[in-house]
Amino acid sequence: MRLLLVEDDNHVAAALSAVLARHGFDVTHARSGEEALQALVPESDGFGVVLLDLGLPDQDGYEVCGKIRKRTSTPVIMVTARSDVRSRIHGLNLGADDYVVKPYDTGELLARIHAVSRRSAQEELTGSTETQVLLGPVRIELPTRQVSVNGTPVQLTRKEFDLLALLAQRPGVVFRREQIISEVWRTSWEGTGRTLEVHVASLRSKLRMPALIETVRGVGYRLVAPAA
């Protein structure tokens, strides 16, 4: 996922960028509100999330958030030392999707990033006229949570469906194990990793398509769309 980090402190930005990179993010660093707005011009490649510090040197962070929201629907997470409720409400009213108060736990920040990106992706899918995902012989009915292969229904558990639907959002894109666990199981507990492996194996078996979900060793999984 591409992430736009808006932070005027180079030391903070470098440390956070390193952490985000280790978790699979492609980070672009903007040091001011103007740099952030320039990075979000319509013809640019899209960002999955904007991480916006409010203490910027050229513009008030709230003002920047308002301008970003007029320009794009990309999820915005505000990051600030202002912890009072009024400030948080003001930020959310301006269009921010979430609000993180410094000092924050890195695990919590990552979970919030995954959460807003997940909501955005789900809105793109369910907000369009398409209510299903077709992957060769595999049909995923999003509203009814039903899956079929060559017209034959396949019974999946809730987590199996959530996992398949997540991977199907971006066929060919590698989802890191940590991201999958955060988005499907809503936890960062490392012990869930074995559960993930079991669910992947179960999906391959039930769909009778072992090559549909590819293991990217040391990273995570991606869905390989089969030929129609």
Automatic annotation (TrEMBL):
Coiled coil: none annotated. SUPFAM superfamilies: CheY-like. The modification 4-aspartylphosphate is found at residue 53. Residues 2-117 form the Response regulatory domain. Residues 130-225 form the OmpR/PhoB-type domain. CDD domains: trans_reg_C (cd00383). Keywords: DNA-binding, Phosphoprotein, Transcription, Transcription regulation. SMART domains: REC, Trans_reg_C. Residues 130-225 bind DNA. The keyword Phosphoprotein applies. This is Sensory transduction protein RegX3. The lineage of its organism: Bacteria, Bacillati, Actinomycetota, Actinomycetes, Kitasatosporales.
